[in-house]
Amino acid sequence: MNFFTTKQVFVSLIGILAACDQPANPESSSLEPEQEEVICTMQFVTLHVTVKGGPLSEYYTLREGSDDTLTFTQEVYPDAAMYPVLDDSFKAALKNTEENFRFIGMIDDSVVVNEPYIISADACHIMKVSGRDEVNIQPGN
What is the mean pLDDT of residues 44-50? Predict the structure, then answer.
């Protein structure tokens, strides 16, 4: 005697599997709606600007909303003339927002680079929304 048909067993298994995929009480889920699980890379992102035309004697980034002056201890690549604008240490402050920054580069006491950037972040990394990757300065500027 066969009490169940193949179709009945199949439908029952699908029902059980579907029930296993749902929390017993959806309102008791440990994740808040805005706390989706995100998998990030271990990479630490730094946004750089390449300055052609001479090495800078001083450089920093201004956070325009607060007038904070940001300096970075990261190594500058003099042969590539790459200077840091901002790094992932700001990802929490910038998450899901956009902010205005300004990269300032100096030779001696003269400002030779004054470039605006808009920078944002997601849950993992900062990202450039706008701003130049490369700046050319003229010797003697």
Answer: 93
